[in-house]
Amino acid sequence: MLLRTNLRRLPDCVITQIFDSVPFDHLMEFCKHYPDKYVRDLLIQYYYCSRVQFAFNPPVPPPKATPGRRNLVTFVDSAVSQFMEDFPEVIPKTLLIDVCMDFKEAREILDKFHDRLVKCEVIDFALLEAEISADDFQFLLSFPNIKRVYFHFNSKLLLPALIDNPKLIKHPTLEHIIFCEHEITDWSGVRFPQNLKTLNLSYHRINFSTLILPQSVHSLSFIYCQIYSIKALRRQMTNELTELKITDNMLEHIVIDDLPRKLHTMDLRRNSIFSITGKEWPKGLKSLILSHNALDDDSLKVINNGVGWPEQLITLDLSVNFFDHTENLSNLPQSLKRLEISSNTFLWRDQENRVEFPVNLTYLGMSDCRVHNLSLLKFPVSLKELQLAHNGIKDLLPYGDWTELINLRQLDLFDNSITTLDNWIPPPNLRELIVENNPITRSPQFNELRNTFKFKITGMKSESNQQV
């Protein structure tokens, strides 16, 4: 009686904070039976009306639901019907429906509550090895609020329902489609939704001459599709394309003039690219991922001295290639804010001028780059995060004045050969120093001129975590 009388008098935020510590099952029972409608409605709105997931035959049990995870509440199998029956007034804003293996049971439940589910703002469907018929596909399209569908199964049986299907073509909200391991090579006659924005066709070879896309598409992904040339895709690249992902394929040569003119993001990791030529990059390209390719010093020299770089490039990933010469690093575009060059076998020769990096960098990844002598490097003042793991660094002092790096927040020195931090003057605003897997055996005695450090040291052998 005391709870019933006083609970409603509390501020809403206090009530929800109290119930954040209540086990999920108990919360469900409380919401079902508590007589005060105001409190009951508050909790239902807070926990069940934002993002809800229905999981049918999940391959692994989802994380145990707790009230504190109000960003996503999951109901599994029979609990879906129970939830819908116990809370007939609930209509989640976003509903994620995941079906694995067997679609029949899921369809029965979704059909039963169809009239309520169509009132959700957004529904996302994911079908994992849950092969569906053409009739099942028509049922999915009966939900006018589907925004995303993900099919991960052999979709050949579904193909007739994809060809010239007016419900698919004219669907009002379906904007994102993913097909993985679809086994469809010939896409002749397939017409995608007129408002489609992103399309991912992966893990199977495609005859691209049969693929027709609406002009609304701005993002394309092709993973493991045996693609040898971007030029073969030129017809499929719409005028509005801004994102292109062609990873784990067989690209060797990129002609930048073949790229869509409005691209701002391009991911070409894990190909065999050794050559980039042409006259003009897309002017708005801001992110370029070229990791795990076959680029070498000659490739980089051609770009630096001839082709040039995109004028607005902000993110560049050149990790896991075949670069040796460090002089090319000083000619990278000054517009960069994020640069990743890890896992390249650079040869660091003694030289008069230190290797400098773009002046606007905030992140620099140089793990596993054979860095031994920091005196050969000059980091930009703008840097906030510096990754130097898996190198051969023995001493931090040769770098010189670390205090110039006034913006540096994290310094990762994991798995180097540093034996002491004594007399090192850290950057003034450092928040985390990672020295795990270094032979440091005692707490550092920093230079006496700087004795007011406030950052976390992670990975000390004597003390795994300490605040300085």
UniProtKB/TrEMBL annotation:
It comes from the Eukaryota. InterPro entries: Leu-rich_rpt, LRR_dom_sf. Keywords: Leucine-rich repeat, Repeat. GO terms for cellular component: cytoplasm. PANTHER family: NISCHARIN RELATED (PTHR15454), PROTEIN PHOSPHATASE 1 REGULATORY SUBUNIT 7-RELATED (PTHR15454:SF56). This is F-box domain-containing protein. It comes from Spathaspora passalidarum (strain NRRL Y-27907 / 11-Y1).
